[in-house]
Amino acid sequence: xxxxxxxxxxxxxxxxxxxxxxxxxxxxxxxxxxxxxxxxxxxxxxxxxxxxxxxxxxxxxxxxxxxxxxxxxxxxxxxxxxxxxxxxxxxxxxxxxxxxxxxxxxxxxxxxxxxxxxxxxxxxxxxxxxxxxxxxxxxxxxxxxxxxxxxxxxxxxxxxxxxxxxxxxxxxxxxxxxxxxxxxxxxxxxxxxxxxxxxxxxxxxxxxxxxxxxxxxxxxxxxxxxxxxxxxxxxxxxxxxxxxxxxxxxxxxxxxxxxxxxxxxxxxxxxxxxxxxxxxxxxxxxxxxxxxxxxxxxxxxxxxxxxxxxxxxxxxxxxxxxxxxxxxxxxxxxxxxxxxxxxx
Length: 344
Ligand code: KG4
Ligand code: ZN
Description:
By secondary structure, this protein is of the alpha/beta class. 41% of the residues lie in helices and 19% in strands. The protein has helices spanning 34-38, 45-63, 84-101, 110-116, 164-175, 181-190, 218-230, 233-236, 239-267, 283-296, 315-323; strands spanning 2-7, 12-19, 24-32, 74-80, 105-109, 132-137, 142-149, 152-158, 272-276, 301-303. The strands form two sheets. It has a five-stranded mixed β-sheet with strand order 3-2-1-4-5, with helices on both faces. It has a five-stranded mixed β-sheet with strand order 8-7-6-9-10, sandwiched between helices. Helix 10 (283-296) links the parallel strand 9 (272-276) and strand 10 (301-303). Helix 2 (45-63) runs parallel beside helix 3. The site of 5'-O-[(R)-(carboxyoxy)(hydroxy)phosphoryl]adenosine has 19 residues, from helix 5 and helix 6. Residues 10, 138-140, 165, 168-169, 180-183, 186, 277-279, 281-282, 311-312 line the site of 5'-O-[(R)-(carboxyoxy)(hydroxy)phosphoryl]adenosine.
């Protein structure tokens, strides 16, 4: 069975052809709009929509270069959550293709796709993982999800304001590091030599000890702004200050994410922790999660996708379409964008 996945929920135009059940990824093309949006320090939805429209046929051509497209069995497309004008580009493209090829469409939830990116690896599905606590951390979302099986998800907590990736992006803008902020902050923080940690900016760990599974990151960004403004201009532009602030903001976000995830893991007696989303590509987050699990709880499995499957891609859409193939429809008219689609 060959599945064609389409993902356009934000600023990456992605198409993948994935073969199941072996989950051989035949192609996984991502056309990033980062350079275009970098000028504005964030994503402009209508500019992104225009780029998707332009790029989708080109990306499809590349993704299907070595296959007979009429042999596709199923099309999976992201329907939400995401930026509505961008979602519609992918959906309409999927509908046209489905009609032309006379194939069904599986409408795919973007959050589930970030989780199921972990299941691209056949071995993963053989393991005794459930119940699992999933942490999805991206530019648009920070959610904790209790997963009782593939297809059985329950949202138990989420950010009350900004997402973790959004916080990285906004802080990077304050510090003049460009867009996307997460990778820039990670690289800058990694260059800090511990002995030169002199200015010691100190940030809060919002909601860390509250007995719930929610997050809040907008105050963290404001705390960075206040600290930045309080420094003399010469200091705030210095390499030393920027490196120390990158180190501190990254650690503040990591501390809260790990603490809350571990709390949920204990409360729900989970057998595994599953990460997904762009922020899960962060090396320190991955390293510190693994370290904490080693020292804290025995026999807990820890899953995180290879970095290219953490950020937006269409292989994760194809694998999700496979696991949710019961939802396939040929009534293409009913496939619609749902910008605020939630895991219930
Ligand atoms: O999942 P994703 O590609 O798109 C959304 O669904 O939002 O996530 C993008 C987010 C951006 O905010 C970006 O700054 C962040 O993921 N990100 C990172 C890293 N790589 C991407 N954040 C921290 N460290 C990274 N290495
Ligand atoms: Zn995403």
